[in-house]
């Protein structure tokens, strides 16, 4: 997949959000889609931007509005992104920042947007389940899913898998349909 050009710092602007809340619009401002891809449009809430700014500020040791390129991966991971070292290097190269350089908050927002956009949990879960379903039945057995969750990636414990199964209403001896499972486990948690 070829991504469009990264948004420019001027592309981050506050707009009056839906239902009275403010959201920041992040997107390329070109009037028509480019040959490299469709026009990018993604919204970050003001709370997300504040959270990003707070974490960014922790690594802005000299209070100059910049962090070191070497701190980028740590800051991104603190905010829930999961970039690989190669992805971080690619983000820096796109913005013309060398390993010993620095980046400002606007550039950081652009990089976070690009990373979050490519980290689609629903797609990642679907791909993992498709790889487990050799016969392409549209489901896998709960026992097989349990095994995968306990052996691959961030390995889960029996209790953690039991909790997931309970929340998703999965019979431990039953079948797990992809679409239902993905929908149940990726529903955003409500603020109470």
Automatic annotation (TrEMBL):
Record keywords, A-Z: Cell projection, Repeat
Region: Disordered, residue numbers: 1-38
Name used for this protein in its record: Calmodulin-like protein 4
Location relative to the cell: Cell projection, Microvillus
Subunit and interaction comment: Interacts with MYO7B; the interaction mediates the association of CALML4 with the IMAC/intermicrovillar adhesion complex. Interacts with MYO7A.
CDD domains assigned to the protein according to its UniProt record, in alphabetical order: EFh
Principal localisation: other
